[in-house]
Structures are given as C-alpha cells and as structure tokens.
Amino acid sequence: MVGERTDRGGSAAGGHTVAVIGAGKIGELMLSGLLRSGWPVERLLATARRPARAEELAARYGVRVVDNLTAVDEAAVLAISVKPQDAGALLDEIGAKVPADKLVISLCAGLPTSFFNRRLPDGTPVVRVMTNTPALVDEAMTAISAGAHATGAHLALAEEMFTPLGATIRVPESQQDAVTALSGSGPAYFYLLVEAMVDAGILLGLPRQVAHELIVQTAIGSAVMLRDSGEHPVKLREAVTSPAGTTISAVRELEKHGVRAALLAALEAARDRARELAAQAD
To answer: How many CB atoms lie within 10 A of CB 155?
Structure first.
C-alpha cells in the first residue's frame, strides 16, 4: 500500500542476481546490507569506475567485480547508484543492451524514472529508491516508488532487498524529491544538531566526551520514544516542558532564533536541489 511503512523481517531470499552498478558510498551500503541479511555472495555483482575501487570491494566483501556490460548480461536486477550527473553517460553505454524484462532500481538522487524510461528499451520496469546512510547499522529509512512499467511484484522485490537495511515505505514518485530532502539528507541534519549541542555542552563546562555521550544517548532514547510510543512529537515535547522551567526557556530561544523556520527553508532548498540535479542530467 502506498505510504505504508514496512519494518525489517527475516532474511532476504536472494533468489535473484543483483548487480550494483557504480558501487560508491550508497552502492556499498546496499552490498554490505544484502550480505548481512544473508543474500548469497554468488548472487551479487558490482561495478566500479576505478580499478583500485574494484579491488577494494572484492577484498572487503568477496563479491565479483565486473564491467558494466557483463553486469547487464548476468544480473536479473540492476541497481544503479552512480552520481546523477553520470547517469546519462552510463545509460548511453548500457541502455540498449538492457533486456526489457530486467528490473532496474535507481538510487540516483533526483532522477525520475522517466529519465531511465527514455534511455531503456520500452517496457523496462524501473523502481526509484531513496535510502540513507543508517543502512550501515541496519536502521535505514528507504522510500520506494514504482515507475510506469513496474508492477507490485517489482516493488515487492525491491522491498525484499531493502527491508533488511531498516524500514521501507512505498510513496508516489511525485513525493520522492521531498523524501530526498527529509530522510535522504536527514542524517546530516541530526549530526549537525548533535555537533552544536556538544559544543554547547563544552561552553557550559562539560568535557567533550561527557557532552558527546549525554547527547548521543539522549538522541537515541528520544528517537526510540518517537518510534515506539505512537505519541505526537508535540505531546512528547510538552511532557518535558514544565511551566517556567529550564526547557521552556531553551525552547523560547530556539523559536526566537528561527530554528523552525530555518529547518523549513533548509528542506525546501534540498528539495529544490534534487529537482535541479534532474534538470541538469536531462
């Protein structure tokens, strides 16, 4: 169902051979996550532009690193994770060689499935995916959208691949740029907030390590409460905010300095940049 979140469950079946084309940071996240979930290493391929990177992937994960055309020939699922600006050149190389019955999964930020449809044989199913770096610890948030030719079975296969990395949610493709801004880039916002709060702790006289431990555990606990309690964040915040207390004094300063407005503007800027990347790739 569109908008329905699916949490991890069980090991991936690994019945299909998956090629990660352009195994950079996000591609490597996918490779490592599939291996941790039990996907057979013999069912995984990778491609890399630089020989040194190919050797690194082979040594680290035991996967076979091949050229792009071999990946197209041998894999049932092609997970494309190159930079958006490099996707056009890649599809110029492999597009005509991709059989229309192979599933293409795009991990390219900002690029719509129509970008791939124009460069692949008619009828090729494309699924657009936006995940994030907490996949490293199996706590990713992954949004999945069907292209024009993708069926429920194709979406289910994408979920099979990404659910072991955290949670998945199906969204209309029209929402993917907003997803990119919110959860795709989201870890960076939290890291920036933690960095600032650690600095504030130092300003208040705490050793850096103590401030770091206090804030990191507070962030983990708060996130678990948000996830597991089912309560609206306003209600959880109000539970900490006593009349005339310390928290409301801090919240007043945050509002005075426009933190909420800054977040709204930041996410709009990220959404707009995703759209610019798509326009530049075309």
So the answer is: 19
- The per-residue pLDDT for 12 is 44
Higher pLDDT residue, 82 or 3? 82
Tell me the pTM: 0.90
Write b or e for each residue in 14-49: b if 16 or more Cβ atoms lie within 10 A of its Cβ, otherwise e.
Answer: bebbbbbbbbbebbbbbbbbbbebebeeebbbbbbe
What ranges make up the beta strands (E) of the chain? 5-7, 18-21, 44-47, 64-65, 77-80, 103-106, 126-130, 140-146, 166-170
Adjacency order of strands within the sheet including 166-170? 5-7, 166-170, 140-146, 126-130, 103-106, 77-80, 18-21, 44-47, 64-65
248 class by beta-carbon count within 10 Å (0-12 exposed, 13-18 middle, 19+ buried): middle
CA dihedral 124, 128, 131, 135 (to 10 degrees): -20
Q: What letter does residue 139 receive in the DSSP assignment?
A: -
Position 144 scores a pLDDT of 98
Which is higher by pLDDT, 49 or 10?
A: 49
| 127 Cβ contact list (under 8 Å, min separation 6) | 103, 104, 105, 106, 113, 144, 145, 146, 147, 150, 154, 155, 158
Residue 8 has pLDDT above 90, yes or no: no
Per DSSP, what are the bridge partners of residue 6?
Answer: 168
Whether 254 has a pLDDT exceeding 80, the answer reads: yes
